[in-house]
């Protein structure tokens, strides 16, 4: 029994087994036949990029416009969770984690390399030096700006909404519920999750593989390791993945959050160092100019395909389309992780933070490092950095040699790369385990460790055999079908938002009877007086209870399956109508209190106020809509109010399109 318990697993066989067969199969082919596999996959990738690039351009444009639409409409007020839910993490922790997961090692790898490669690319050789420098910054902004984060945002937002608002599993299959309904529980849902797991594994493996190469290059430069042989690469992978596994086992609230916060502080320190000890005035000026160029040319860049400029099209395919494919292929992993930490945020808060804050930081980072490198290359290095443009593994460390305290900053850079490596790996392990276990609340530690072992083993196998390029091509190929899947996410999301908004905005029908003006004198007396806790409890006992009892009796006589729910606490009572397949109708009244302003404390009728609080009977409902004060209702009027809400309930549940909100089965967490 003890051994059986230790070996228990939360893995879903329908997801895990097919995914492992495909992942291990592709990795073995890439390792045994690296050249042949890479040749085939590279051919497929190039065909997609050359002939179907418009799919990426249109899709990414749609993602950006969709999120901007949500930002400025009424849907932005919807919360990712219950209406009264609040964020689990502080704003700083939230931003740190989504930033570390979303960009990670790429910031260190491309911050100098990408601007220098645009600056030296033959497609722009006819331009002046000034124009090439300006374009290098602009293209880097374009590739690391709003478009990249819009891709992540669509997946993360869709997952957050369906997981926390509709109480479905934190799984890509949940985003299809308005389209597929209960079919997401079967093979269609498994196929979606298999795709997400494979894409996530390929993306993390290739990124970490290239990260190891850069880290190894830096360690060699400072004589920490003698060379860049496979033995030292293996040592780096084993050490860092071990740390990642430990962090993943610790959980998001501990390992991932702590490392992300350390990393963001380290990154800011390095950024400020380069900014103030580099060509500061030049950097501030070029950042300002670059930001203006990005804003003014935003739509021009978005829709540019260089169809009439054949000389620039290879650059367009190798950079812009590759980037869109790369971000899309990473979006299942990053989206799931962002969703995991975003519960309680509003849609507007989510979109604003995800689109603006990381984008602005990326712009500052790329400007400081990229523009400094261009300036050094023009004024100090005499073109030496341009010659290293095709060697991004060593370019960052060579760039730092032109700044004071280069050894210290290089060690800090190594530390940041290591932490980015660990945060990418541990959040990746966390996400992959979540996909494979269908978001089980807890998993055995050996299972989480196994993901780290598998990740390290396959990465080392591919590093040894030279198969990383093939796996990278495979990752980019998967981006095409997932771009289409993401477009379906948006359709499904809009459909759900419309239902959501109608559900909470739907008013009483015109057949309901408004409150009459009878007994207005006694009501005025009630309005201007306060109640203590005892008086409110008496109202519940003498008015609410008889009203509910009369209504309960009448429900039963008319064949309605109703029951009265009384509680040990005399401050609460409710009537409930039960249904087999639907969420039950509930109308309740409970004793609640509120603070009284000091300006009313001197009123002659405030003698019942207890510690600046007054009490009142407040209604509440089974669907968590906000209730209201019912103390002015007579017994018959309270019955009438219950019937108004019951009539509204029947009107909603009778409409088939509202099934997602009203069905008891779909609102249960699927297992």
Structure characterization notes:
This protein has helices at residues 2-6, 13-32, 34-51, 53-71, 91-102, 105-110, 113-120, 129-144, 146-165, 177-180, 187-221, 230-250, 252-277, 280-296, 298-303, 313-340, 347-379, 384-387, 392-400, 406-436, 445-465, 468-477, 479-505, 520-527, 533-557, 635-653, 659-662, and strands spanning 562-566, 572-577, 585-595, 613-621. With 671 residues, the chain is mostly helical. The chain folds into two domains: 9-497, Amino acid/polyamine transporter I (Up-down Bundle); 520-662, no CATH class. A four-stranded antiparallel β-sheet has the order 1-2-3-4. Helix 11 packs across helix 16 and helix 13 (252-277) runs antiparallel to helix 20. The longest helix is centred in the first third of the chain and has 35 residues, at 187-221. Residues 1-6 and 509-514 have low confidence and may be disordered.
